[in-house]
């Protein structure tokens, strides 16, 4: 039910956006843009259907001959039985299965036309730049729509010659037997007991400890991969220096070879968890979040210790009803770095976001342009090849907000909005992951450089201290941290 609602709202929102853009233009343009697009879609779909039925009946697109290979290439990484939980949400059906694909076919057409699927926020101009990008080629999109329009025919399973090969080459993988996408974790931790998120709670950000099983982690380790398995989609996000940030739209963290994060040998791994749900009777849930880690092995070399910065920008007020409020901030890069990834973060009023690099000689380059920001998907855009950013550069960040009634996600267009932790407040963050370019040459298993160990410990300490301040719950959840220091 909610799934249905989500796309409907999304579509309305997109229409509202188109309308908004066109309102500023002449009346002529106002009519032309949507109509032209609509015709182009109709004509291209018609052309395919017509050409298919003109040749022979059996040339109409079928599931096995036409749709399945495209689903495998573009969709089954998520839409498979027991697909990955991307930050708590699993895709609702398997597109490897004809019956399910047929039942969902009207929704599939919708999702493709509106651009809701495959989910991705970076503009087409970034094609080829980021890992796990999700763009679907126009030709493929047209063929899938033609398949739906042609009656979602089944065809002959024999038409798929090499099903496994296709899955393997299409970016879709099968969940390893371990149940973790990162393979066999070296360490798995979970809450000591489930966290109870009461009926009355809408937003709640407790600090929760994952106790480390006795003897499982007695010395600092370098994280190569980390995966969070939240207990449900109402786990809105999880922040931990070791695991990065777990939110809808993000898969496991896999650092490039030679890049790593140090996990100090603490009896606890600490994370700030943000729960967000509709409050009310019967809405209480329990959460048992887990985390899994794969470590580097002795003898491996860590050249780049991953650092992260949230780059939050505060101090602005978005006026009630403003349809296009812009916020700007900048960040000076003091030493040569490799930029690994970028993660824009706003809340429901977020509309678009841009990172732009100004080189020391004044030349400018757009690093990331997200033209149609969607709060429900919080992607991390990770470079295929970490990007060199010379010392003396400036990163300019811009956020756009829609606080008007046109924005269907807007919790309250009559309110001025400022920076705040609740989902109904706003944020203008521009998280980056990066590392200095100078290789550290740290050999895993040998003595750790003191600065690295200190930085990792300080980070964790800061997180614990800050988190206590952020906990706004009136309820007694002291048992959450009960036992600290007793092990
Ligand atoms: C990154 C993972 C991912 C990929 C890739 C992906 N999907 Fe989805 N899809 C999801 C998730 C998660 C949901 C549930 C989201 C929701 O409820 O809004 C979903 C929902 C849907 C829905 C239901 C829409 C609705 O309103 O509930 C359809 C239809 C769909 N996907 C089709 C596709 C097709 C077709 C492709 C490939 C062209 C695709 N998806 C690619 C993750 C993915």
What would your notes on this structure say?
This protein has helices at 2-23, 27-55, 63-74, 98-103, 105-114, 138-149, 163-169, 450-470, and strands at residues 187-190, 195-197, 203-204, 207-211, 221-229, 235-240, 244-246, 253-254, 259-263, 268-276, 285-287, 290-295, 301-302, 304-305, 307-309, 325-332, 337-345, 350-358, 364-370, 381-389, 394-401, 429-436, 442-443. With 487 residues, the protein is an alpha+beta fold. It folds into three domains: 2-118 and 130-169, no CATH class; 187-303 and 442-480, Sandwich (Jelly Rolls), CATH 2.60.120; 309-436, Jelly Rolls (Sandwich). Strands 1, 5, 8, 9, 12 and 14 form a six-stranded mixed sheet that branches. Strands 3, 4, 6, 7 and 10 form a five-stranded antiparallel sheet that branches. Helix 1 crosses helix 2, helix 2 (27-55) packs across helix 6 (138-149) and helix 3 (63-74) crosses helix 6. Bound molecules: heme C.
Q: Tally the beta strands.
A: 23
* Spatial extent as radius of gyration: 24 Å
How much of the sequence lies in strands comes to 25-35%
Query: Could you give the distance between the termini?
Result: 45 Å
Q: Give the helix tally.
A: 8
Q: What kind of sheet is the major sheet?
A: 6 strands, mixed
């Amino acid at each position: 039910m909610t799934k249905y609602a989500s796309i409907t709202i999304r579509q309305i929102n997109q229409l509202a956006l188109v309308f908004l853009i066109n309102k500023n233009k002449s009346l002529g343009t106002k009519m032309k843009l949507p109509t032209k697009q609509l015709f182009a879609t109709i004509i291209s779909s018609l052309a395919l259907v017509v050409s298919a039925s003109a040749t022979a009946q059996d040339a109409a697109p079928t599931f096995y001959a036409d749709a399945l290979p495209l689903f495998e290439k573009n969709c089954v990484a998520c839409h498979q039985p027991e697909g990955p939980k991307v930050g708590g949400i699993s895709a609702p059906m398997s597109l490897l299965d004809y019956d399910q694909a047929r039942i969902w076919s009207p929704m599939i057409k919708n999702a493709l036309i509106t651009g809701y699927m495959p989910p991705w926020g970076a503009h087409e101009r970034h094609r080829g730049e980021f890992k796990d990008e999700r763009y679907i080629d126009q030709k493929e999109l047209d063929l899938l729509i033609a398949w739906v329009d042609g009656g979602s025919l089944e065809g002959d399973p024999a038409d798929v010659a090499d099903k496994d090969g296709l899955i393997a080459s299409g970016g879709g993988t099968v969940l390893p037997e371990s149940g973790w996408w990162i393979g066999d974790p070296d360490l798995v931790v979970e809450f000591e007991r489930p966290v109870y998120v009461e009926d009355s709670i809408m937003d709640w950000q407790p600090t929760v400890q994952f106790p480390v099983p006795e003897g499982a982690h007695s010395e600092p380790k370098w994280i190569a991969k980390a995966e969070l398995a939240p207990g449900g989609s109402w786990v809105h996000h999880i922040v931990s220096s070791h695991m990065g940030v777990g939110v809808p739209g993000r898969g496991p963290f896999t650092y490039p070879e030679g890049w790593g994060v140090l996990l100090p040998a603490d009896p606890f791994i600490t994370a700030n968890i943000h729960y967000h749900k509709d409050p009310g009777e019967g809405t209480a849930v329990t959460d048992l979040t887990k985390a899994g880690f794969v470590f580097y092995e002795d003898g491996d070399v860590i050249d780049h210790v991953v650092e992260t910065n949230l780059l939050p920008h505060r101090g602005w007020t978005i006026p009630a009803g403003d349809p296009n409020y812009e916020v700007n901030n900048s960040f000076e890069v003091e030493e040569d770095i490799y930029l690994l990834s970028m993660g824009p973060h706003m809340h429901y009023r977020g509309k678009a976001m841009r990172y732009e690099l100004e080189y020391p000689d004044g030349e400018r380059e757009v690093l990331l342009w997200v033209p149609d920001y969607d709060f429900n998907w919080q992607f991390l855009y990770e470079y295929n090849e970490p990007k060199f950013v010379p010392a003396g550069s400036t990163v300019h960040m811009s956020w756009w907000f829609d606080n008007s009634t046109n924005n269907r996600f807007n919790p309250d267009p009559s309110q001025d909005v400022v920076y705040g932790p609740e989902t109904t407040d706003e944020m203008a963050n521009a998280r980056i992951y990066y590392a200095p370019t100078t290789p550290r040459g740290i050999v895993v298993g040998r003595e750790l450089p003191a600065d690295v160990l200190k930085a990792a410990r300080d980070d964790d300490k800061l997180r614990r201290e800050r988190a206590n301040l952020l906990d706004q719950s009136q309820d007694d959840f002291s048992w959450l941290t009960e036992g600290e220091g007793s092990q």
